[in-house]
Amino acid sequence: MNNFNLNSAKRKKNERIFKYLCQLFTWMSLLILLVLIYHVSIQGLHYLNLDFLNNYPSRFPDKAGIKSALWGSTWLISLVFILSVPIGVASAIYLEEYEKKGRLARLIEINIANLAGVPSIVYGILGLTIFVRFFALDRSLIAGALTMSLLVLPVIIIAAREALRAVPQSIRHGAYALGATQWQTIYHHVLPASLPGILTGVILAMSRAIGETAPLIMIGALTYVAFIPESVMDPFSTLPIQIFNWASRPQAAFEEVAAAGIIVLLLVLLTMNATAVLIRNYAQRKYRW
Amino acid sequence: MVVNNPVLKIHNLNIRYGDSLAVKNCSVEIEKNKVTAIIGPSGCGKSTFLRTLNRMNDFIDSFSLDGQILFDGVDIYDRQSDPVDIRRRIGMVFQKPNPFPKTIYKNITWGPHINGYKGNFDNLVEGSLKGAALWDEVKDRLNESALSLSGGQQQRLCIARCIAMQPEVILMDEPASALDPKSTAHIEELITKLRKDYTIVIVTHNMQQAARVSDYTLFLYEGELIEYGITKNIFTKPDNQQTEDYITGRFG
Prior knowledge:
The complex is a heterodimer.
Chain A: H1 8-44, H2 50-54, H3 67-98, H4 103-115, H5 120-134, H6 141-165, H7 169-176, H8 182-211, H9 214-218, H10 239-247, H11 252-286
Helix pairs in contact in A: 1-11, 3-6, 3-8, 3-10, 5-6, 6-8, 7-8, 8-11, 10-11
Chain B: E1 6-17, E2 20-31, E3 35-39, H1 46-52, E4 63-71, E5 74-75, H2 83-89, E6 90-93, H3 104-114, H4 121-131, H5 135-138, H6 151-163, E7 169-173, H7 181-194, E8 199-203, H8 207-213, E9 216-221, E10 224-230, H9 231-236, H10 241-247
Parallel strand pairs in B: 3-8, 3-9, 6-7, 7-8
Antiparallel strand pairs in B: 1-2, 1-4, 4-5, 9-10
Helix pairs in contact in B: 3-6, 4-6, 6-7
């Protein structure tokens, strides 16, 4: 016992300091978020009413509304979802379940990880070159959705691969041992079990897609749209672009309109995430081992 | 050793993981409707050998083999052989119970369902669960999650799931090693009962278990087949000194 210098008083003090430090930082980030929400609410709440949701943008702050941007964002996010989730999940399944692990697999893995870190404006340039110009899709919804899908694909692929990897091998082996093909094993056991993890990735990806502005401005999404897009070939605006447009106007009143827009954007985001979290929790309850 | 009615014939089998040789030049015949136990110390290649018999090692990238494994006269590693079909006919029970996170009922019916079973599923579930001596314990809760069962029950469910496919051979990889003594006794009783209808190959590190349940015993040491014979002989008067040393507990 004499060979130990326990020094318990000092160690306990360090323990406490570290704990409080972590606590402090946690509360700090929460506090900043609360201040932000408070500030935005004070500014924007009195502009927020049904008219605001139902009006098109206008040069008069009192008449300005967010209808076209809200519809634009809804269209965009739906298209991005339809385009990116099947492709992302399929890629993840291929990379994780079918591909032989080797040098090529590692190369692809590194590249996808890198793509997830590429600045969004670069995707904007890519979208402008390929979709807007080369495929002549012009400043349409589909051009925006394709560009945004490229942007979020790496996020979905990486998250889905993690989720697939977390499914115990023993489940796969149990299925194979009953004479199941690989696809039957994946479809009936691996995919349902990894669904919660995949959904987490999809939530992250969709949140990013609905908030991104730069690539859409790059491909020429409009800042003033007085109609609702009716097909994927129509021009469009989105919530963050509309907010950016209002916030950069000289009149003080538009700053408050922008704040109202931010509230709408936050609400849309929260609803989306809450739905996904609910689905995820439901799926999680079914699969526990 | 020559058996009367072999269902699996293994000739000069070498199994490799990358460059390391896990099983060396093994030749064995497995008799139909008997229990064959594979014993040997940890890392001697027992599980590797067993998993090779229904191509469960295909999923390991570094795995390779030469030699022949004839099942019904057909080499299961031949290009023409379909691993999915082989695994349907040669079932497997694993070391750790691995029921699907679904209901007890669906655990039994899934295998037959994906293989196009046309019979009555209710009867199949009842028959399989009775065959695995689990029916009385679960007949009132077939729609509960299989994960709500105890470890021993889960393992019997895995056996029931396996026999629902009516395989010709059942491979068992230390099926009782994760279970308590009472559940182990249950499983052993079940194995002696199943030998009537199935050929069973069981890997075990428990020599008493091998002596209790098997007709034939195969002793592997460092990837080599040391001795293979009738269980009674192996455990009373083995031909080989190494076998005797191992079963008397002098090493391993």
